[in-house]
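Aim 2 progress update. The chain analyzed this quarter is reproduced below.
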Amino acid sequence: MKRTYLILAALLATLTVSAQFGGRMPQSRVETKTIHSNVLNAERAYTVFLPRSYDTDVNKKYPVLYLFHGMGGINTSWFQDQRAKDVADQLIASGEACEMIIVSPNAGGNIQQGDWNGYFDMPGWKYETFFFTEFLPHIESNYRVIGDKQHRAIAGLSMGGGGATSYAQRHSDKFVAAYAMSALMDIPGQGAVQSQREDDKMAILTRSVQEHSCVKYVTDADDARKAQLRSVRWFVDCGDDDFLLDANIDFFRAMRAAQIPVEFRIRDGGHTNEYWHSALYICLPFVTRCFYVK
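Predicted structure tokens:
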């Protein structure tokens, strides 16, 4: 009887909403906007996924996932190349993921044509300062975000996977969970771009990744840092044919040695859009579970 009542109540609610919108159910939407950064002295674009109840339930607030693109990508890449909206719609409809706001900022472009890339503070590009002092407050004051650690997660692919991991490491008070896909956790010395030119942005990016090595951050951790890292839920996902697999294994081993829980998956695949598309089917349910675990 109770189950029948719930089904009837859900059906009534659906019909009511449908009637309000002329027989059409509200849909999720993706919008792209810009923010002026005083830190970067530039306009920076960002793309936001808003779940379908966002425009109908105007008092509801949502958890938020910050989703970072890789080198050469931009804010729209997750929605064009990895089809994040389609995945989110499917998982939310099935109940495997909760309704959430997904935000992808632009931290790059075509580095071969001179665009900046990277999520760290570098000479001429203080992106991390921009993110935490300008961008995150902008998003959480302009969208109905639940602005606390328990309802804020971060994820990314490749360069963005390393950036997401490093942000969650060094700002563990901000994020409940971090999901790294094919992540640039470090660059070995022999893999560095050797250039001292001040305008060589690839060399600058390479050095910034080495200086913010996610592996070294764990191996150098004292007890206080380890305690902070344990306050974040970690998930690392990398393909068995990915050229970054060894660095991801090194990160897992460092976390294991430090007794910091981390879920680690090696799946079939390489450094490809299809791999990251498939990773979203794991990522969104994972962060959903983290949002609602007290």
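The chain has one domain: 32-291. The first helix runs from residue 2 to 20. These observations will guide the mutagenesis experiments scheduled for the next reporting period.
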